[in-house]
Design a protein that fits this description.
This protein is mainly β and about 50 residues long. Helices cover about 0% and strands about 60% of the residues. The protein is built from no helices and four strands. It is elongated, with a radius of gyration of 13 Å.
């Protein structure tokens, strides 16, 4: 099974009030996928490291 980390962060509405998503693929520096889901004052970040 792949290794993964889920992070949930809350923000004050005047700092961040956003709806959307972002996908970051692995590159030369980082070997994991990052998926971010922005839901108004909460941000869910999922980092997944694929098995070799």
């Amino acid at each position: 099974m792949d290794d993964w980390i889920l992070e949930i962060a809350f923000h004050y509405p005047h700092d961040r009030f956003l709806v959307g998503w972002e996908m970051i693929e692995p590159d030369e520096q980082y070997n994991y996928f990052t998926f971010k889901l922005y839901l108004f004052i909460a941000t869910l970040t999922l980092d997944v490291t694929p098995q070799e």
